[in-house]
Amino acid sequence: MNKNKREKEFYSVDVGDSTFTVLKRYQNLRPIGSGAQGIVCSAYDNNLERNVAIKKLSRPFQNQTHAKRAYRELVLMKCVNHKNIIGLLNVFTPQKTLEEFQDVYLVMELMDANLCQVIQMELDHERLSYLLYQMLCGIKHLHAAGIIHRDLKPSNIVVKSDCTLKILDFGLARTAATGLLMTPYVVTRYYRAPEVILGMGYQANVDIWSVGCILAEMVRHKILFPGRDYIDQWNKVIEQLGTPTQEFLLKLNQSVRTYVENRPRYTGYSFEKLFPDVLFPADSEHSKLKASQARDLLSKMLVIDASKRISVDEALQHPYINVWYDPAEVEAPSPLITDKQLDEREHTVEEWKELIYKEVLDWEERMKNGVIRAQVQQ
Ligand code: AMP
């Protein structure tokens, strides 16, 4: 396409401190959120005749942390197609050449709110368990593709008023930087599992810990393990759940073990004390049963030693959750990730710029050729 024609396809609009330069098909932009990568707007898409969300990634290649995250997200969003993972509707850049390349815009399905907003609400067991079921379906689908999230948190999970839920991101790359480069943006770590906090090896059920923290917060309306830093957070974990066993301590590397062993000893509290009946709706016998099931699930998810923690499959079979079980949702075919080095990639800024630019062009090419599915999973 010639440059002038391309230029005419875009227009600019100020949103907050940022300028969005978007395709003219997207109208009526309004800011709806912001994260480590930038601002997200809602907009009306004249072509699809529906509302969408547009996320602007400003100079995503500017440093290793941003570049790896943006590239990984772009590649994975293109492969994954599951109703509980956010779907990509379009990708574009207003710049016309690699030399000029600056920003990437991701167009996604629009949801109503993130889970932080839902946590304030008093939900009944039906909604609570349905939200959890959908989180677990999304997580299982990611795991099936070899993606272990490790950083699930309420701000990265979005919902609609009909109680449908989608996970927004793909978490930490195996070789992720610690986030130090992301300052001044504050990284939320409250939902990270002990094996992440303590720098141990991890397996798929690392994500179950985060789901447990989120469920606990929905019940308590307070963050379960808040902490200024990992040390403070670890204190909150052991104060409530108790000092882990010797068997667990032996799995830690020497310096971490010394630190953990030298903390004061705590016996912890029973789950009846941590999550008493008053926190749950208890208006009927059915609700009482559900409350005890929810508490039982919490006690199996919030287990410090991952080898003793419930797995995703077991959680999906738990009585609190399995009422929703639908094989089409739980056992959807796993996505094929073609870039096997996705997490290992290390590049210079210039190389990242080219890689990300190529991904955008590849999307445009596939759109033109009609390769991209017209409709993402609803
Ligand atoms: P992110 O930059 O992906 O971390 O998103 C930041 C915030 O923007 C989220 O916490 C949501 O509140 C909001 N958001 C992002 N994507 C969407 C979407 N597709 N639908 C609704 N809200 C969204």
Question: What would you say this structure looks like, in words?
Answer:
It is a single chain. This protein has 378 residues and is of the alpha+beta class. It is built from 14 helices and ten strands. It has helices at 3-8, 64-79, 115-119, 125-144, 194-197, 206-220, 230-241, 246-249, 254-261, 271-274, 285-301, 312-317, 327-330, 349-368; strands at 10-15, 18-23, 26-35, 38-45, 50-58, 88-92, 103-109, 113-114, 157-159, 165-167. The strands form three sheets. A five-stranded antiparallel β-sheet has the order 3-4-5-7-6. The chain has a three-stranded antiparallel β-sheet with strand order 8-9-10. Strand 4 and strand 5 (50-58) form a beta hairpin. The longest helix is centred in the middle third of the chain and has 20 residues, at 125-144. The protein is globular, with a radius of gyration of 22 Å. The chain starts with a helix and ends in a 10-residue tail after the last helix. The site of adenosine monophosphate has 19 residues, from strand 3, strand 5 and strand 7.
Total count of helical runs of at least 4 residues: 14
Low-confidence stretches: 178-182
Rg for CA atoms = 22 Å
What proportion of the residues is helical, as a percent range? 25-40%
Which distinct ligands sit in these coordinates? adenosine monophosphate
List the helices and strands and how they pair.
Blueprint: H1 3-8, E1 10-15, E2 18-23, E3 26-35, E4 38-45, E5 50-58, H2 64-79, E6 88-92, E7 103-109, E8 113-114, H3 115-119, H4 125-144, E9 157-159, E10 165-167, H5 194-197, H6 206-220, H7 230-241, H8 246-249, H9 254-261, H10 271-274, H11 285-301, H12 312-317, H13 327-330, H14 349-368
Antiparallel strand pairs: 1-2, 3-4, 4-5, 5-7, 6-7, 8-9, 9-10
Residues 32-35, 37, 40, 53, 55, 86, 108-111, 114, 155-156, 158, 168-169 line the site of adenosine monophosphate.
